[in-house]
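pinned: reference chain
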Amino acid sequence: MRTIGSSVPVHDAQAKVTGACLYTDDLEPADILYAKLLYSKEAHAKIVSVDSTEAEAMEGVVAVLSCFNTTPRFYNSAKRFDEQEVPQDEQIFPRIVQHVGDRVAAVVAERPEQALRALKAIKVEYEPLPAIFDPEEALALEDSSGLYAKISTSGGDLEAGFSQADAVFEGRKETEAIHHLALEPHSVIAECRNGKKATVWTSTQTTFAVRMLLSELFGFPRSRIRVVKPVMGGGFGAKIPMILEPVALAAAIKTGRPVKLTLSRKEAFFATRMRHASKTRIKTGVKKDGTIVAQDITILFNGGAYCTQSINVGAATVHDIVNCFRTPNIKVTALPVRTNLPVAGAMRGYGSPQMHFALQTHLAQVARQLGIDFYAFLERNLVRPDALSPVGGRSLGNPRPLDCLHRGGELFGWKAKSALPREVGKNRFRGVGIGVGTHGNGVFGAHLDYTGIRVRMNEDDTVLLFTGSHDMGNGSVTVQKMIVSQELNVPLERIEAVESDTENCPYNLGDYASRGVFVSAEAARRAAISLRALILEKGGGLTGRPSAELSLGTEALLGADGKALMSRKDLFRRINQELQQDLEVTESWANAAGRTSYGVHFAEVEVDGNSGEVDILSYVAVHDVGKVLNRQGIEGQLEGGIHMSTGYALSEELRFDEKGAVVNGSLGRYNIIRASRMPKELIVDFIEEGEEPGPYGAKSIGECAAVPGAAAIANAVADALGVEVDHIPLTPKRVLALLSLKNGDDICPA
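pinned: its structure tokens
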């Protein structure tokens, strides 16, 4: 049975499309209450008082929570494990609100509409404080209170490198904050009926981290907190931190009844997380032939009101970017800062989309000024399979971005398309662009990074897989089932998964940092191999043959000659009844190497000079994934990443008013990219040259899929117009401003 490499639908696809899946908000425990949140109208203020007298007297209201009757303990909602040292600046209900939309109070009532009515009756007195929205202003504070951390990595000798350059180029790039827009908004149910044991059902990417944080906040031992993730409708990083869980559990403890808290779409825009807006300065030294000899890069991240993941995002950004080019002398610095905007956090790519947009558009401009085709420039500078990191000199494993470039260039027809005229009609322009992207696989070398998997063979030849993985619709559990199928020679339909339950599944750090294939799937492979070895050991005892001579066929236990010794069901029944033993193993696998996924994207665009609209005519994306495990799944991941990149490049941005409040927080006003604006022609392909120690040589694509696209599209627009693109998204207003700049008008890009 050869499952690996085939195309398999997501394991619960049918249940999802038929409506059979139960998401968190679909669950209705008996005697449930509903919570709704009251949010700050001030960007920065001390809460003097919260008068809930009138609200508490209203019909159906059971409790009102605020900073005056809940624990004042500080925490960091993105802390992953006990020893992690991160700033703890959040509270369930803060005494000093830090942004418009910060939590002020919660009403718990018998019905959601009763809770919403009661919110309007709560009177809050604020003492306003100064607010900062501009990250550069925050960075300039004399007491350094605006800077969460300075994260830097370097290799070689920067001064010597620039002295060897024939030319030095400098650039400044900017990206806006965007929202994850997962189909399923944040939702949580908590209960603590007897005050001794809590159960929390939540849409999260980190069940074990949520358990740890709730234990610290409420003083419960972890044996008395159970966290379960039901079916999740997308995460993209927004569901890594603990956001709603402490509010729901505080309400459940206070009322003694289960409490549900589900955000509306409007609330999700300001009360959860967003991708960091960024400002990047780049200085590049090159030889006349285009060889990069030195780079100094600084990226400023607007972290918003609380630290959460800002330091982690900065660290991931600086370490991922140095693995892209053969730059011998390099320094990369990330500066995440505190402002009074809504909180920024992880979003698919973890800083890489911002950094690669900045770097790739800058380098494309460098190539143009040198008179070198950008394809040739990349060909000269991309890392090779034998490359060593410029930071520390460690092996990069088997990086294949050059293969991606060559395959993509062939599929796209780069040579022919790049030679075509730029003007294709009256005030219409055509251009082509390339973007390269990198992203790490897990957090090897940074901190704890392991996954446990348990596999049980039942006596009827069916299998139970116990996994702490949090499938977000991305098919991570499907891949684990495929691996178990492959190793145990059992059909997929005979494998069931118990998923993301801290009381029943082995530990998992969480589903982020592209760990799904490289770490968790390898844990599944090792568990399945161990279970197969155990089965053959028991089969050897029952048949009197050495286990090394036995193998598992699809229908029977086979001898050295390949002939059946007994059926699989007889084998498993006899182990159960005669030996009276279980067939179950648990394996933990820790990430053993820092490896990087690569992708190269090509875009062809047409720009309407009258409207400023950008149409993507054709698009090719080729990714170095080591080995394709589930072709249908990986194609879907890549196509989804291209969709997100297209919105990031052309239309999506969160906008704020003078008080820092989100002004376009709805699906109608946010301008998510529509399916009709996807490339007219889209081709995806993969380089499969293996990457140890990934399962069967595989590495992840989930985040890397969303990294190169914005750069490719921006470079294509720059090529079409003959100007440099410094700021995304390329809305019609910004495109028209670029055209005015191109035509010599005294107008700067918006």
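why pinned: The longest strand covers residues 428-440. The chain is about 30% helix and 25% strand.
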